[in-house]
Write a structure and sequence with these properties.
The chain crosses the membrane at residues 59-79. Keywords: Membrane, Transmembrane, Transmembrane helix. This protein has helices at 5-21, 28-44, 51-126, 130-135, 137-150, 152-156, 160-164, 166-176, 180-185, 195-219, 224-228, 238-249, 286-294, 308-324, 331-349, 365-375, 384-397, 401-404, 408-418, 438-453, 456-462, 465-478, 481-486, and strands at 252-256, 262-266, 299-300, 303-304, 431-435, 508-514, 522-527, 536-542, 548-554. The longest helix is centred in the N-terminal third of the chain and has 76 residues, at 51-126. Among the domains are: 5-96; 300-423, no CATH class; 428-554. The protein contains 23 helices and nine strands. It has 555 residues and is of the alpha+beta class. The strands form three sheets. It has a five-stranded antiparallel β-sheet with strand order 5-6-7-8-9. Helix 2 runs antiparallel to helix 3 (51-126).
Length: 555
């Protein structure tokens, strides 16, 4: 195919445009110059027989060389581009990281100024030295958080998410650097607080209040003799007056403890120095403040510390908080629930001050009256049905297996039911589980054969709670009703329908025995057909001879 002069010129124009689109590193001017020089060289050569033909051949050579050069340079350009782009992105990321680090350091410096200023204000408010302030564990926790925010390593590890949350981190830290008075003064009073907002007030208040209560009470020791003389407070030394005034500003009042010594007691809701802002708290949240004031003292060993009426008022307050709280995983919820369960268990079984049975073994009429009030719905929604069941059993049999086998677990189940939540059992961490495999099934079978061969009662009395439950399930599986009766408390009726289809012990996934001390052992049973969060709790108690026997099954 031949190329005329016009075609040649068009080809040159196209080549030049291609060069112009390339990166500057290709230097198209030099390439064109090289082409022109090549053309000039051909023009100065000796005229040959067919100059046009030779010129076109030279043009072809130049064009091919140019295309090859363009390909080589273009390939080099395309290979180098990602590397340059990567370097550019890294530089942008590095600059952004450096900018974030600078922003973080500036924020940390500003936070330090605010933190130190607020901490000094609190020190003056509490009338303590810096060493005394730093000795409070709640201050130490805040100090650790502050140091974690402001050290250089935190700036170096800054992330985009952290950079976006600096204000939230600051607000959270300074919010916890507080006093009981400041917690309540932070309530704006524009409208009543929700339960969640009220719970947050308690969360901020609890630790400072408890620790300051103990601290100021300790300062009273040198003045104990003077306080017991009951002289007018105007005659107190200035130091003692200052202590009392400072404590009262934090919602604490002077009182006498069980040992007859003077101490400060925090009462921010109903005390002589209660905070005005407390009226905005949600009523259901007051159970937590009640617990902080005297809830952990409601029981003194096996009996209630206060009068029955006052104890029931406290329990009613606890119940409202427990039913309203949607966060059962919190530490405060657990402590409140534990005291609630323990106290109700004691009252329903009878205490030395409020016995269920008199010395001659007859039923206490006051106890019956108490149960009737509960069964009628007075004082508690949670234990209403339990009280009604005990009352019915006493009326029919003059004894109650429900009362005899009652444990804190039963109160917890009733609480879950009242909250409209599914029944369950305590944290799996409190149970030691063993898997029911073929070897374990064989071992239980051997226990059963030993029982059949003789020494029946002796063998049963020596069983651990978990083996007793395993043997009980085995008895259900093989239809040994005599063994079933021997393993339960007399006159106890247990619904075993959920185990009626048990044809092999390996259908059981796990057996778990609670490793938390209980007055009544608890054993959990998980079936393979059930989901992991389902279990059956089997309760045991001591019989008249002091040996464990099964008292009931709960979902």
């Amino acid at each position: 195919m031949k190329m005329d002069d016009k075609q040649f010129e068009k080809r040159m124009v196209l080549l030049k445009k291609s060069y112009d689109r390339m990166d500057t590193q290709l230097d198209p001017n030099k390439v064109l110059q090289q082409i022109d020089e090549e053309k000039a060289t051909h023009n100065t050569q000796v005229i040959q027989k067919n100059p046009v033909k030779r010129q076109k051949a030279s043009v072809w050579l130049v064009s091919i060389a140019s295309v090859l050069l363009l390909g080589i340079l273009g390939t080099s350009y395309m290979i180098q581009q990602p590397e340059e782009l990567s370097n550019s992105e890294q530089q942008i990321m590095q600059e952004k990281q450096e900018e974030q680090q600078k922003t973080y350091r500036d924020w940390a410096n500003e936070l330090t100024e605010k933190y130190e200023h607020q901490k000094e204000e609190i020190r003056k408010e509490l009338m303590v030295s810096l060493d005394e302030l730093n000795a409070f564990s709640y201050i130490q926790n805040i100090e650790n958080e502050f140091n974690n925010y402001t050290n250089n390593r935190s700036a170096e590890r800054i992330t985009a998410e952290m950079a976006e949350n600096l204000q939230r981190m600051e607000d959270s830290l300074l919010e916890k650097l507080t006093t009981p008075r400041r917690v309540f003064e932070a309530i704006d009073g524009k409208k009543p607080l929700t339960f969640e907002e009220s719970y947050k007030i308690y969360d901020l208040y609890e630790q400072p209040a408890i620790q300051l209560e103990s601290f100021y009470s300790g300062l009273l020791e040198p003045y104990e003799h003077l306080l017991k003389k009951k002289v007018p407070s105007s005659q107190y030394p200035l130091e003692l007056q200052t202590i009392i005034e400072t404590a009262s500003e934090q919602g604490m009042e002077l009182s006498i403890n069980d040992n007859g010594s003077y101490a400060f007691k925090a009462n921010p809701i109903n005390g002589a120095f209660a905070f005005e802002e407390a009226k905005y708290l949600h009523p259901d949240s007051l159970g937590y403040f009640e617990y902080s004031q005297k809830g952990y003292l409601v029981m003194d060993k096996d009996d209630v510390r206060y009068s029955l009426e006052e104890t029931l008022e406290i329990l009613t307050s606890f119940e409202r908080a427990l039913l309203a709280d949607k966060n059962p995983g919190s530490r405060y919820y657990y402590m409140l629930r534990d005291r609630f369960e323990y106290t109700w268990t004691a009252l329903l079984k009878g205490t030395p001050k409020h016995p269920a049975l008199l010395a001659d073994g007859t039923i206490n009429k006051d106890y019956i009256t108490f149960l009737q009030q509960l069964a009628d719905g007075k004082h508690s929604k949670v234990v209403k049905q339990i009280a009604a069941t005990i009352l019915q059993e006493l009326a029919q049999q003059q004894t109650s297996t429900t009362r005899d086998g009652l444990a804190a677990y039963d109160i917890w189940q009733a609480l879950l039911q009242a909250k409209g939540e599914k029944a369950g059992f305590r944290n799996y961490d409190t149970f030691h589980f063993s898997y029911m495999d073929e070897a374990e099934a064989v071992r239980i079978d051997k226990l059963y054969q030993q029982y059949r061969e003789g020494g029946k009662e002796t063998l049963l009395n020596q069983l651990s709670p978990i083996d007793m439950v395993a043997l009980y399930l085995y008895a259900i599986m093989v239809g040994d009703h005599a063994l079933q009766q021997a393993l339960v408390i007399p006159n106890t009726v247990i619904d075993t329908s959920r185990f009626n289809h048990l044809d092999n012990l390996t259908a059981i996934s796990q057996l778990g025995e609670s490793n938390v001390p209980h007055k009544y052992p608890l054993v959990s049973v998980r079936m393979k057909e059930d989901s992991n969060d389902k279990a059956v709790i089997i309760k045991l108690m001591k019989n008249n001879n002091g040996h464990n026997r099964i008292i009931g099954i709960a979902d």
